């Protein structure tokens, strides 16, 4: 009997222990009623730490919850809340919370005083107008602390390095439902930029100084130090850049700037492999010499090999006085193509002059010599052309591999004339417009318009590289690469004098970096009269670290090549 009683006691203890363990591991649920909006959100934040099952149900825990909710509401100015916490015996970990917020405490007096040079600073005036606590407002402790932080942050960004509060006082009289705010902020004098010194640079200083976005004696702005850092990084001349104020040499409220630099390697070799349904597998080899001398000249070369195209290019860049915005470039390239009904071997030599205009447009003026030996359908010829041209290009986008907003515009023209030694006379026009927009975080719209025209009587003296073809990953999906084109009597592709395509695509974020897309493309390439074709389909997008990866299932609806096409591409969408 003794052993039997011991066994029963042990079993009961085990059951109770198991029950307690299960109970302790069950998370709490809070059923809150009576409040919504900011008050409900703040209560949820304060109660998050109690959802885990490591608190024993009971009156003491309910009191703790009441105190936490009271604190959460006081942070928003509600000091007269009535809070009831109850739980059923059958479900002790489901807490029913009834809240009556009561009348809020309002700001009865707002004594905000600004002194120092910031009294005439428009940015401080705007901050006070937008964020300063005002008489009659409901007291919000977070907004009060946020305004104090905003004042200090703005002062540091604009060079008020001695700025500080001379008085910070928040007094609350809950019984009167009143609060009294007293903030006195003395900005002191605003500092100015001093001399800029460069250390460790292998590039002559005149070129580096053209990158400085401010003058000696200008008022300090942190953002302009960031612009200088970015401009130095864009040159590609340096492996390490550190831009900072020299606080040990401050005189008369003037802050000298030190720029510590480390040269980039003399030779950089990059290899890569990629794939798209247009050109199949592509191998790449890039060899760059970021700087050749103290003037900052650079040399870049590229080798690209794919099933239908092989090319090698080299570019020699000579920066001018404003190294970030203006430069000369000499380019030499050779390309061999064997695609559809096109076989060509072309050589290009171009002299280019680049400008960055104040309107953020890049302007490029060029003179290009092209020699092309080709077979296009039933035509076998070679041609030599000298083409001066000019183009304008502008692109903007938000951050990220799949930006929420972006736009790109390209307009260009090249002219050839027998008067200066070309084998043919014509004017070739090219344009491309792209736009990306978003609605919230989960919806994107991508649009593209692409067009071109060659003003001449016929195609016989125009090489394939200057004719227009449509179709492919970045053109009209649902059709093979460069298969939308005029055809001869043998049904061979001849290319066209004109081309126009449009794409409209909607994307929806499924989860994380994964998106679904639906699209419709429309366009044609023609010589005399367009034959419009349309492609429709859906796809998958992955925002990879190196750019969008696109997989499209597309159907061509018109023409002799209509049918299904699978498109795969990696790279920018515009």
Structural class estimated from helices and strands: alpha+beta
Are there runs of 5+ residues with pLDDT below 50, and where?
A: 1-24
Count of helices?
7
Helix content: 10-25%
Short descriptors:
alpha+beta, 574 residues, 47% strand, disordered N terminus, 16-stranded antiparallel sheet
Question: Can you walk through the features of this model?
Answer:
With 574 residues, the protein is α+β, with helices and mostly antiparallel strands. 17% of the residues lie in helices and 47% in strands. The strands form 4 sheets. A 16-stranded antiparallel β-sheet has the order 10-11-12-13-14-15-16-17-18-19-20-21-22-23-24-25, with no helix packed on it. Strands 1-3-2 form a 3-stranded mixed β-sheet, covered by helices on one side. The protein has a 3-stranded mixed β-sheet with strand order 4-6-5, with helices on one face. A hairpin with a 7-residue loop joins strand 24 and strand 25 (564-570). The longest helix has 24 residues, at 2-25. Residues 1-24 have low confidence and may be disordered.
Summarize the structure.
The chain is of the alpha+beta class and 574 residues long.
What are the SSEs and their pairings?
Layout: H1 2-25, E1 29-33, H2 37-47, H3 59-74, E2 82-86, E3 94-100, E4 106-115, H4 122-131, H5 141-157, E5 164-173, E6 178-186, E7 192-199, H6 205-209, H7 222-235, E8 238-245, E9 254-263, E10 268-276, E11 280-289, E12 298-306, E13 309-319, E14 326-339, E15 342-356, E16 362-376, E17 379-397, E18 406-416, E19 426-439, E20 443-455, E21 498-511, E22 514-526, E23 533-544, E24 547-556, E25 564-570
Parallel strand pairs: 1-3, 4-6, 7-9
Antiparallel strand pairs: 2-3, 5-6, 8-9, 10-11, 11-12, 12-13, 13-14, 14-15, 15-16, 16-17, 17-18, 18-19, 19-20, 20-21, 21-22, 22-23, 23-24, 24-25
Helix pairs in contact: 2-3, 4-5
């Amino acid at each position: 009997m003794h052993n039997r009683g011991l066994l029963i006691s042990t079993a009961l203890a085990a059951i109770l222990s198991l029950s307690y363990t299960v109970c302790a591991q069950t998370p709490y649920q809070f059923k809150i009623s009576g409040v919504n909006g900011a008050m409900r959100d703040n209560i949820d934040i304060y109660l998050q730490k109690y959802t885990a099952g490591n608190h024993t149900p009971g009156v003491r825990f309910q009191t703790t919850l009441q105190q936490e909710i009271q604190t959460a509401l006081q942070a928003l100015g509600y000091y007269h809340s009535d809070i009831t916490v109850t739980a059923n015996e059958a479900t002790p970990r489901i807490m029913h919370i009834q809240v009556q917020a009561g009348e809020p405490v309002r700001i009865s007096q707002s004594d905000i005083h600004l002194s120092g040079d910031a009294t005439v600073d428009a940015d401080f005036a705007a901050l006070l107008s937008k964020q300063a606590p005002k008489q009659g407002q409901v007291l919000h402790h977070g907004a009060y602390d946020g305004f104090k932080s905003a004042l200090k942050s703005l002062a540091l960004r604009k060079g008020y390095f001695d700025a500080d509060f001379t008085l910070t006082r928040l007094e609350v009289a809950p019984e009167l439902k009143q609060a009294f705010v007293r903030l006195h902020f003395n900005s002191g004098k605003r500092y100015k930029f001093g001399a800029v010194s460069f250390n460790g640079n292998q590039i002559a200083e005149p070129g580096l100084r053209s990158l400085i976005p401010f003058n000696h004696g200008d008022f300090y702005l942190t953002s302009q130090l960031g612009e200088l850092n970015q401009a130095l990084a864009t040159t590609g001349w340096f492996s390490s850049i550190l831009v900072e104020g020299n606080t040990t040499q401050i005189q008369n409220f003037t802050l000298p700037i030190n720029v510590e630099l480390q040269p980039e390697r003399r030779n950089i070799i990059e290899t890569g492999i990629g794939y798209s349904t247009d050109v199949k597998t592509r191998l790449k080899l890039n060899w760059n010499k970021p700087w050749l001398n103290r003037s900052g000249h650079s040399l870049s070369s590229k080798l690209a090999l794919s099933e239908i195209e092989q090319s090698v290019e080299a570019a020699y860049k000579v920066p001018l006085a404003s190294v970030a915005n203006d430069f000369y470039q000499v380019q030499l390239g050779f390309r061999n193509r064997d695609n559809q009904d096109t076989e060509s071997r072309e050589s290009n030599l171009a002299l280019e002059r680049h400008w960055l205009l104040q309107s953020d447009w890049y302007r490029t003026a060029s003179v290009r010599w092209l020699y092309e030996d080709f077979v296009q359908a039933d035509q076998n010829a070679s041609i030599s052309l000298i083409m001066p041209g000019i183009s304008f290009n502008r692109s903007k986008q938000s951050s990220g591999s799949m930006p929420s907003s972006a736009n790109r515009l390209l307009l260009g023209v090249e002219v050839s004339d027998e008067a200066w030694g070309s084998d043919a006379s014509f004017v070739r026009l090219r344009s491309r417009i792209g736009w990306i927009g978003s609605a919230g975080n989960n919806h994107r719209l991508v649009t593209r318009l692409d067009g071109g025209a060659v003003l001449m009587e016929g195609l016989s003296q125009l090489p394939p590289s200057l004719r227009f073809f449509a179709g492919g990953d970045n053109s009209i999906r649902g059709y093979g690469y460069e298969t939308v084109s005029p055809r001869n009597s043998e049904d061979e592709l001849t290319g066209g004098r004109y081309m126009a395509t449009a794409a409209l695509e909607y994307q929806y974020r499924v989860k994380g970096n994964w998106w679904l897309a639906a699209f419709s493309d429309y366009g044609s390439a023609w010589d005399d009269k367009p034959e419009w074709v349309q492609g429709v389909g859906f796809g998958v997008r992955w925002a990879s670290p190196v750019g969008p990866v696109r997989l499209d299932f597309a159907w061509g609806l018109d023409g002799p090549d209509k049918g299904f096409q699978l498109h795969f591409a990696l790279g920018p969408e515009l």
